[in-house]
Every structure is written in structure tokens, then in C-alpha cells.
Amino acid sequence: MSTGNNSHPVHGAGLGLRREAIDDMKQISNDQVDFMEVAPENWIGVGGAYGKKFRAFTERFDFVLHGLSLSIGGPSALDEELVKSIGQLMREHGIQFYSEHLSYCSDDGHLYDLLPIPFTEEAVHHVAERIKRVQDILGQQIAMENASYYTPAPGGEMQEIEFIKAVLDEADCSLLLDVNNIYVNSINHSYDPVAFMQALPAERIAYGHIAGHYNEADDLIVDTHGADVIENVWQLLDKTYQHFGSFPTLLERDFNIPPIPELLSEIDRIKQLQQKWPNTSANSNEQARG
């Protein structure tokens, strides 16, 4: 399995592997999709027919893991057994990288949603210590994804961008840059998505996400991963590559999964934008992490 360039664990344009579409996705070639991503919680301990199907994909494609339930910002004790199981899954399938959401989803029980962490100095220290512990267990750097949220986090002392950068620096971890989440939050919380994107640290970017969402109202967007990527988000991805140079980017589609050719048309658009803005910018090369 390749490890991408010095700053990226994979390369090119990726697609999330979903169990309900796994048979249809067998037709996808390595020329069409460069890497894939799964939630480790959906595959830890899976054997039998589905285990064999998953193995067939991990033998063909580079993979990254994107966690759903570690609850890195939560008040409950860190689930170290889950982290160890994730490490075992990575070793079993030669998977190079793991990321999680910069949010929380548990407090003495699963909350069934990803909730915003208060943007405070105390929360920065709490989250960073937990990230460092995960990295110690896995023996490698992980990435945190900028998360979508719908109500202001209580007790906020910092802006979202300040909080993200402080966590990344204190934990010395990477960034999973979700372009759709920037757009969603910019509508829900009335800020400039381009200025927010440009304030993110180039040297921390491991890879990116792009996805569709649902317009609940003019000032409320829900991050669903259940629709096509809209033009405004494509334009933001274009501006993101222009600013940073291109980086590996994955299309998320969790439900309402269309026929494979429709998914591949969005993958092709990612590749076209990556070719438009090759990874040769000063930001990308001079600040690349070894």
C-alpha cells in the first residue's frame, strides 16, 4: 500500500465504501478511484462473506479510516479499547491512516449525534490530551475533521477557527479538511467560508472531504451526505485548491446512493479540479510535514 507524498497518507480522489453498495462498487477500477474510506466501527470484527468482500477491496485500494464514535471531545473516559481495535483493523488490512470528528457523541451513553465542543481554552486542553493519547496508542499521527454544527456551543470563548487551530497545534495532529462542513457552517453561522478556509493551517492538511447536504431553510443547512454536491461547494473546493494546492479529497455519500456512473462523475470533477490546481503551491510544498 502506498503512503502518498510527505504530507498526505493517500493521493488523488477517493470514495467512501458503503456496505449496502459494496457489490455494485466492485465494478470500480483503480483508474477511476484512487482511495477509499470506511468507518472502522462498521468493520471491526466483521468476518464471513462481508469480511471477504472488504478484504478484496483493501487488497485493491489504498484505504483510510474515518471514525464515528470515539467522541474525542466528550466528558466520558476515552474508549481505549476501541482505539486498540482500530489499530488492529489497520494492521490486518494495511490501512495507513485514521481520522475522527472534532466533536463528541457520548456522555455515559451514545447520544446518536455529533455535537459541538465548547470553544474554550479548557476544551482545547481536554481534547488535545485525548488526541495525544489516541496517537500514543496507535503509534502515529491522526487527523481531526472540522465538524458541522447547528447551534452555538455553550460557553464559547473563542471563534471556531481559533479553536480548531489551537487543538491541532496543542495535539500536534493533522487536519481532515471538510469543504462541505465549512460551507454548511458558513450559512448556519453567518461567516465567510473563503476567509475561514484560508485561515486553516496548510501544513496540517492530511486529506479532504466533499459531500452533499440538505437545505432545511435559507439559513439552515443539514450535513446529510445524501445528495449531490452543489455548485457553491464545488466552487469552494476550487478556491481551496487554488489557495493550498490540491490534496487528496474523498466524496462522501452515505445514503440515497446513486448508480455508480453518477458517483464517478463527481469523482471525475474532483480530479479535474486537482489537475487545475496541482500540488505545487508555496503553501503546500514549503510547509509540508515530513
Question: How would you describe this protein?
Answer:
This protein is 38% helix and 18% strand. It has 290 residues and is an alpha/beta fold. It has a single domain (13-286), classed as TIM Barrel (Alpha-Beta Barrel), CATH 3.20.20. The strands form 3 sheets. The chain has an 8-stranded parallel beta barrel, surrounded by 4 helices. Strands 5-6 form a two-stranded antiparallel ribbon. Helix 3 (121-138) packs parallel to helix 4. The longest helix is centred in the middle third of the chain and has 18 residues, at 121-138. Mean pLDDT is 87; it is low at 1-6, 106-113 and 281-290.
Q: Kindly provide the name of the CATH class.
A: Alpha Beta
Largest sheet data: 8 strands, parallel, barrel
Major sheet strand order: 1-2-3-4-7-8-9-12
What is the overall pLDDT average? Answer: 87
CA-atom Rg in angstroms: 18 Å
Give the second-level CATH assignment, the architecture.
Alpha-Beta Barrel
Residue stretches low in confidence (pLDDT < 50, at least 5 long) are: 1-6, 106-113, 281-290
Strand and helix order: EEHEHEEEHEHEHHEEEHEHH
Counted beta strands:
12
